[in-house]
Amino acid sequence: MYETNYHKAGSTAEAGDLISKSDDAKILGGGQTLLPTMKQRLAAPSDLVDVTGIPELQGISESGGGVSIGAATTHSEVASSDLVKQKLPGLAALASGIGDPAVRHMGTIGGSVANNDPAADYPAALVALGASVVTNKRELGAEDFFTGLFETALDEDEIVVSVNFPGAAASAYSKYPNPASRYAMAGVFVAKSSDGSVKVAVTGAGQDGVFRMGEMETALGGNWSPDAVAGIAPAADGLLSDLHGSAAYRSNLVTVMAKRAVAAAS
């Protein structure tokens, strides 16, 4: 690991000020991606700005019939929240399957969405549920926030403050995890809103990260059952292909995970 300067910010304003005054600062949440990358000397930020102690980045609350989750809230807190379980059971289940207990007790929802790993779980939930990301500067819809592989619409000095999820009539997530990393080789989040509209978002399989399955959404809008998506799969073109699984394999996994997610939501 290269030498770096550590700062513990007490507010988002202080964090933003520290970032603006640094040559190449990085925000430190749970550090589950950043710290291993630094240890391998693949990243060398001049400064680390720890935001985990900022009060406004903490906690889970009901908001407009949905749920607002502070960016520094851990995966474990999301998974164990009675409010999340009641309002968005699919999101609670998703959080309970991230990594292992050590990762879940350290990793944060804000860090995960800001990193936008193509195999991370949360992006699928944000897109399917129509969530918005609140920063210290603005509020962005999930589909505007995620812009590509490890890329988001965040500016260099922009800090994720919270993630706001609308309520849903039904929601569920199913993934096929890599046995070692527990990252999704293919994960599907399905959500049905109170007006009956359906969204299906896929993570872990796309070369550009999270994406929606419009054909599945249409099918489920007319028939909310696993059978409705049984014959639907994304084209292998544009899907990830690596030593863990080919694009064709991931295409099939998307169908299987979608069926399981719909069954769980039902």
Description:
The termini are far apart. The longest helix has 19 residues, at 247-265. The relative contact order is 0.12. It is globular, with a radius of gyration of 18 Å. With 266 residues, it is α+β, with helices and mostly antiparallel strands. It has helices at residues 12-20, 34-39, 75-80, 82-87, 89-96, 101-106, 109-115, 122-129, 142-145, 214-222, 247-265; strands spanning 5-8, 25-28, 47-50, 60-63, 66-70, 132-135, 139-141, 146-148, 151-152, 160-165, 170-177, 184-192, 198-203, 211-212. Helices cover 33% and strands 24% of the residues. The chain has a five-stranded antiparallel sheet with strand order 4-5-10-6-7. Strands 11-12-13-14 form a four-stranded antiparallel sheet, with helices on both faces. Strand 8 and strand 9 (151-152) form a beta hairpin. The mean pLDDT is 95. It has three domains: 5-49, Uridine Diphospho-n-acetylenolpyruvylglucosamine Reductase, domain 2; 60-165, 2-Layer Sandwich (Uridine Diphospho-n-acetylenolpyruvylglucosamine Reductase, domain 3), CATH 3.30.465.10; 170-265, CO dehydrogenase flavoprotein, C-terminal domain (Enolase-like, domain 1), CATH 3.30.390. It is built from eleven helices and 14 strands.
